[in-house]
Amino acid sequence: MMRRFYLCLGYASLALSIVGIFLPVLPTTPFVLLAAWCFTRSNPALAARLYDHPRFGPLLTAWRDQKAIPLSAKICALTALALSYALILNLTESRILLAVLAAVMGSVALYIATRPRPRDGCDAPLPNACDR
Predict the structure, then answer these.
(1) Which of 13, 45, 96, 130 is deepest in the core (most CB within 10 A)?
(2) What is the CA radius of gyration of the chain?
(3) 5 Cβ partners below 8 Å, 6+ apart?
(4) What is the pTM of this model?
C-alpha cells in the first residue's frame, strides 16, 4: 500500500517538476528531490534512472550522499532568487507581500548558501546549469 503511495507521489512530484521548468513560480528542484526520494522507496529502477540522468544525476547524487550543492548550482539558484525578488519589487506595491517574500526568499537563499560544496570533485561546472 505504501509502495503505491510513494510511486504515485513520485510521479506527481516529477510531473510538477516538469511544469516548474516552464513556470517560474513553481520550483523544480524540490520536486525532483521528492521524486527521487519517493522512487527510492517504491521503485528503485525509476530512482536509478533519475540518479543516472545526465543533468540531474550529479546534483541528486551530491545531495543524497553529502547534502551538498555544487557551486554552479548555488550561483544559479541564488541569482534566480535575486532576479525573482527584483521582478516582484517592480510588479507589486504591497509592502506586506514584499516583507513576507523577503523573509521566505531570504531564508531559502541562506539555506542554499550555507550548504557545503561536494567533496569529491562533483563541483565541476555543469553544462547549462542555470537552465531550468
Answers:
(1) 13
(2) 16
(3) 42
(4) 0.77
Query: HSE-up of 103 (CA within 13 Å, CB side)?
Result: 5
Q: What is the pLDDT of residues 99-131, one digit of tens each?
A: 999 999 999 999 999 999 998 755 545 545 444
> Cα–Cα distance between 130 and 81 in angstroms, integer?
12
Pair 25, 18: CB distance under 8 Å? no
Using CA atoms of 22, 25, 30, 31 in order, give the dihedral in degrees to the nearest 10: -50
For residues 53 and 50, give the distance between their C-alpha atoms in angstroms, rounded to a whole number.
Answer: 5
Spatial CB neighbours of 95, under 8 Å, sequence gap ≥ 6: none
34, 9 in Cβ contact below 8 A? yes
Mean pLDDT for the chain? 88
